[in-house]
Write a structure and sequence with these properties.
Radius of gyration of chain B: 36 Å
Strand order of the largest sheet of chain A: 6-7-8-3-9-10
Number of helices of chain B: 13
Oligomer: heterodimer
Largest sheet of chain B: 12 strands, mixed
Radius of gyration of chain A: 18 Å
Number of strands of chain A: 10
Shape of chain A: globular
């Protein structure tokens, strides 16, 4: 397991550290008769421990990008190397296995099963990855501990606040130590106080050298990330961080 | 994915909506219960019908001389006088006796004369000669008096037994005042009055006299028929042995009327009932399968978001298909178990209300849950394929 801190990555520029994500010229076209170009020649490299925000207005292609990053969708052209492996060569079964073992998903609407307790929802993460049943609850409790939710382990999600539900979902994504955490508008359904606490949590995870990719349309949320890219009409551009720009916002 | 994980996931999903699971299962419960109940009831009822046949018909053999054989003179003396003794020596014969019509040559039967100008006092009435064992062989029951024994026959005593209808016609109601009747000009003492017979109902209206008496008074040539009662199940064997035992010189001269094989009776009765009942059970099972398929399909459509989540957690298409298949199979299995229990209760209940013995093949209560499971499995195929075909990206757009 490569666990190089972000500073070292900058210095060595990926020579020592293998990038988690390498997109080269990735395009995604929907439909054949009247093709819609959701992504146009996207190049993107995400290094271990990076916290990347992907911003853009709705319909800009950021969801498509996230789906491709999460192996939920296949690009039309270009190459995608995840953890050094060209995933276009993997069949559906192997892609599902990579998704289950190395990628954690966090959704805007949390996606917690309403009839299962928080702990059971977290334990779902180990169902399809071949993890032993033994010790599963302990591992789930450890994940819940990382998000400060151990005292709510036996609650049903419907009895939790939005922020607590998102923390439970993050705990589920953390199970199995994923290489990449993909967050789809993680604060979209939260009030600003809960949103901030979730972003604080991401910051902590990022400091623990977890790799995060987060899509959002909210510049304020994006400004919490260490690195930002903007996607407009399927074209991806790096946003060069100017500390003054983000500090201007209230 | 571990089997235990798969099973516990399915169980948790089903238990999350218990009311729906119960309602879904009802169709299968009814179908399997109908199947089990019909199989059990037809078996039970079939046994019952066979039991009734066994009582009388299956133990009843009548031997008569063959009549009108082509190219050969009719033999009237084919049966020997000791036919009763010969038949009784066979193993499996319970009782036997000879029965012969007596030709009165136009003589009438009348009671002791009472001068009644209005009423009829003389009757043309069947008179039969019986060996002592006949009364047992036809299961005659006595109203009063007694039946003649070997002594009466040997001495050619002039005694008779009256069938109940004959007794009524002749106004003989009791025997303790030693009533007598005339046959032609001869006087016969009425020794007994029958109250009923289970075989040879012609005896009910007849005057029955001992064989020896009929020989002496009416010149009887030979017994006209032999009535035999066998043990249950012995009829077919006895029917083969009787001609040789009764007429060793010419067994083919005798005609044996024996009951059909009991086993064939049973099969005939049951296959009729079974096919009808099984059809009904099959139709209810089909309805149950459609119910499971329907609800599982609705469940797939409702749980699109959950399917998306599971795909994001690393579930392959076959994991999704497997989960819905196992869920529908579990529903079918539970329906099968409940249906088997319910069907068995119905069989026992119906049998108890009719005081029958409930009969159920051993494989029925074991096979019924399996039938339910197969129904659930088949019903789940289409919904599972639909669930597995969902694209994760699309599925994740749905909320949970």
């Amino acid at each position: 397991m490569i666990q190089a801190p972000a500073e070292d990555v900058d210095a060595t520029d990926g020579l020592v550290t293998r990038p988690v994500v390498e997109l080269a010229g990735v395009s995604r076209v929907f439909g054949a008769d009247a093709p819609v170009h959701a992504l146009r020649g996207v190049d993107l490299t995400i290094l271990p421990g990076e916290w990347l925000a992907i911003v853009g207005p709705s319909g800009s292609g950021k969801s498509t990008l996230l789906n491709i990053l999460g192996l939920l969708d296949r690009q039309t052209s270009g190459t995608y190397r995840f953890d050094g492996v060209d995933v276009a060569e993997l069949d559906d079964l192997k892609r599902a296995a990579v998704r289950g073992r190395r990628i954690g998903f966090i959704f805007q609407s949390f996606h917690l099963l309403p009839h299962r307790s928080v702990a059971e929802n977290v334990m779902l993460a180990e169902l399809y990855v071949g993890a032993p049943r033994r010790g599963r609850r302990e591992r789930a409790m450890a994940a819940l501990d990382r998000v400060g939710m151990t005292d709510r382990a036996e609650f049903l999600p419907t009895r939790l606040s939005g922020g607590q539900q998102q923390r439970a979902a993050i705990a589920r994504a953390l199970m199995g130590e994923p290489r990449l955490l993909l967050c789809d508008e993680p604060t979209g359904n939260l009030d600003s106080q809960n949103a901030d606490s979730v972003l604080d949590l991401f910051e902590g995870l990022s400091h623990d050298s977890l790799t995060l990719a987060m899509i959002t349309h909210d510049d304020h949320v994006a400004s919490r990330a260490q690195r930002r890219v903007r996607i407009i009409d399927g074209v991806l551009n790096e946003v060069h961080t100017e500390p003054a720009a983000s500090d201007e916002r209230p | 994915m571990a089997v235990r994980d798969l099973l516990s996931e399915c169980l948790a999903s089903l238990l999350a909506r218990p009311a729906r699971a119960i309602l879904t299962v009802i169709g299968t419960v009814v179908g399997v219960a109908a199947l089990v109940a019909t199989l059990g009831l037809s078996k039970t009822a079939g046994n019952q019908i066979v039991g009734r046949f066994d009582e009388l018909a299956a133990t009843d053999i009548v031997v008569t001389p063959k009549t009108g054989t082509t190219g050969r003179a009719q033999r009237t003396d084919a049966l020997p006088w000791d036919a009763e003794q010969r038949a009784r020596r066979l193993n499996g014969v319970v009782s036997a006796g000879t029965l012969t019509d007596v030709d009165l040559k136009g003589q009438l039967v009348r009671a002791v004369p009472v001068n009644d100008p209005q009423g009829q006092t003389q009757f043309q009435m069947p008179v039969k000669a019986a060996s002592p064992g006949l009364f047992e062989a036809v299961r005659a029951s006595l109203h009063s008096g007694r039946v003649p024994d070997t002594g009466h026959s040997d001495r050619a005593d002039r005694v008779v037994v009256l069938g109940p209808n004959a007794a009524e016609q002749l106004h003989v109601t009791r025997v303790d005042n030693q009533p007598a009747i005339y046959i032609g000009d001869r006087l016969y003492v009425v020794a007994g009055i029958l109250s009923g017979v289970e075989r040879q109902p012609s005896l009910l209206g007849a005057v029955i006299m001992p064989e020896g008496t009929a020989q002496q008074d009416f010149g009887l040539q030979s017994p006209g028929s032999v009535q035999v009662e066998t043990r249950v199940g012995a009829a077919s064997v006895i029917a083969n042995q009787l001609p040789v035992a009764l007429s060793p010189a010419d067994p083919t001269a005798l005609k044996v009327v024996a009951p059909p094989e009991p086993r064939r009776v049973r099969q005939g009765v049951q296959s009729d009932l079974d096919s009808l009942f099984l059809l009904l059970g099959g139709v209810s099972l089909l309805v149950g399968a459609i119910g499971i398929a329907n609800v599982t399909l609705v469940s797939v459509l409702e749980r699109v978001g959950e399917i998306g989540l599971r795909r994001s957690l690393g579930a392959a298409r076959r994991h999704i298909a497997g989960q819905f298949l196992v869920e529908s199979t579990t529903l079918g299995l539970v329906g099968g178990i409940l249906g088997a229990a319910l069907g068995t209760l119905v069989v026992v209940g119906v049998a108890a209300s009719r005081t029958w013995t409930p009969v159920l093949e051993g494989w029925v209560p074991i096979g019924a849950p399996l039938v339910g499971a197969v129904v659930g499995l088949l019903a789940g195929v289409y919904p599972s394929v639909r669930a597995a075909a969902l694209e994760p990206v699309e599925a994740l757009r749905a909320s949970l």
